[in-house]
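Subject: Protein entry, chain in single-letter code together with its C-alpha cells

Area: Proteins and the way their chains fold up in space.

Attached in line: The record itself begins immediately under this heading.
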Amino acid sequence: MSKATIMLDSNNKFITEALSNQFSNALAGNRLESVNFHFKDFDGVAYHMSNPNDDKNKIMLSIYLSYYEELQEHGINERIRQEYGIYVAEKPEPQYNISLIYDLTEIPQKYDDLIFKAARLKRNCLASVFEKYFEFQERGDAGQNRAVIHYREDETMYVEAKSDRVTVIFSTVFNDPADIIIGKIFLQEIHGKRASQTAPQVIFSLGEPPLELKNSNARISEGIGYVTFVLLPKHTCKASRDNTIDLLSIFRSYLHYHIKGTKVIKVCYCFTNLLLLLLRIGLHPIENALQNGRILKNTESRKTESYTRAEDYNGSYFRKRRITWISNSEYRNRG
C-alpha cells in the first residue's frame, strides 16, 4: 500500500519557494520586487503574501481558517506566539486570522528554519488541538470535553483523550458513489494491513458514526464516512508527536487525493483499452476517411479472398493492410 501511494507534505511548497526567493535576494543585495500573492491550501485555507504598507523591505504572510474560533478554545494564539515569537503581527491583516511579518533587512544568514516554520503555519495551527489532548493523556487527565473542529463545511474532526490513548476521528463526505467504493477499499486496506506493528489502529465506518460519538450530533448518512485513529502513548509522546501531528494534519487531503487519483487512473486505463480496441477493428481507415472529408456509404458487405471483412456502423469494409475504403460499386468495377 505504502509503495503505491504518495505521501503529501504538511509544508506549503509555495510559501517555501516564495520566501526562499525573497530572502536570498535580500541577502544578496538584489533589487526587491513587490509581492502580492493570494493562494489557497487544502481544506479551504486561504493565504495572502504581501508587502505591508507597500514596504518592499517587509513580507507579510497571513492565513485564514474558517475554524479559527474553534481553535481559539484550544490555545491556538499561545501556540502560534510560542512557535513564531517576534514574527507574529500584533494585529492580523483584515479578513485574516494570523499574520507573520518578516523584515528583509534583518534576515539571518541561515534562514532555512525560518522558512520551514512559515511553510508549516496551517499545520501548527492544528497542532494546538493535538498537543493539548496529547498532554491530557500523558497526565492521565481523561475528564476533559471532546474537541470538535469543523474543519470543512460538512466535515468534522473529533479529538478525545483517555488515560491510555487519544482518539482522533475524522468525518468526511463522499459525494460520488464511486468515491464511496474507492474510499472504502482504500481505508479497509489500511485497517486490515498496517505498514508496521508500530502504526496506530485505524477503524473505518460508513454511514454510522463510531461508538465514541454515540449521543453526539454526528451526522448519519450514506455518504458520510468516519475514520478513527486510536493513538497509544508511543504515538503521542514527545519523541513521536511531531510526526503524528504531521500525518493527522494532512490525512483528509491524503485520502481524497488518492480517491481522485484512482478514478483518473481508471479512466486512463479504460481509454487506453478503447484506443487499442479501435485500432484492432480499424480505427486507421476511419481516420483516413475523415481526413478525406467523407465516409463512403455502403449497404452491403461481402468477403472475398482478397478482402477481409471489418464490421462498423455503416457496413463498409476495407483491405486489412491498405488504409482504403472499398464500396460495393468499386468492388464490382474491379471485378
Summary: Confidence is low (pLDDT under 50) at residues 295-325. The radius of gyration is 30 Å. The chain has three domains: 13-121, 126-265, 282-334. The chain has ten helices and eleven strands.
